[in-house]
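Re: beginner question about structure tokens

> Can someone show what the tokenized structure looks like for a real chain? I only ever see the sequence side.

Sure, here's an example I had lying around. Input first:
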Amino acid sequence: MAKGRKKTSNPDAVVIENRRARHDYLIGETLECGLRLFGTEVKSIRAGRASLAEGWIRAVADPASLVLQGVHVAEYPPAGPHRQHQPVRSRILLAHKREILKLARAQDGVNSTLVPLKIYFVDGRAKILIGVGEGRKKSDKRQDIAKREAQRDMDRAMHRRG
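And the corresponding structure tokens:
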């Protein structure tokens, strides 16, 4: 047998990203948490079959817990019908108690919520990046779009010139 390295993709690469979150919310503080998942959920996420778009996070200060709500993780067909998970269910996030309490206080602010930003793998373990988001107004979104377009036009002009 030939000795060689097995070619694998980057295990730290972002698998699932919530692109809509940065458009709808002004993201402040972020935190990386672990996810408590079933085996079929892990395989579906590795295959890229999950959606964070409808997801949100509830922080509870009394028992100090974070719960991921509304995230859809598709069923994993090779597992068969008897070992499947529910596609949309509450999932517990793993973090230190002081971090959970800090996020619970931040969530209590006016017009702020906890938003899932990314799901990725670090050393084979599923991690989720969450952020404290303040809702944006329509005018703020329009200003950002106009700013991006102006920057793009300037870059194009500089490229043509140089």
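Each token stands for a local structural state, so reading them left to right follows the chain. The radius of gyration is 19 Å.
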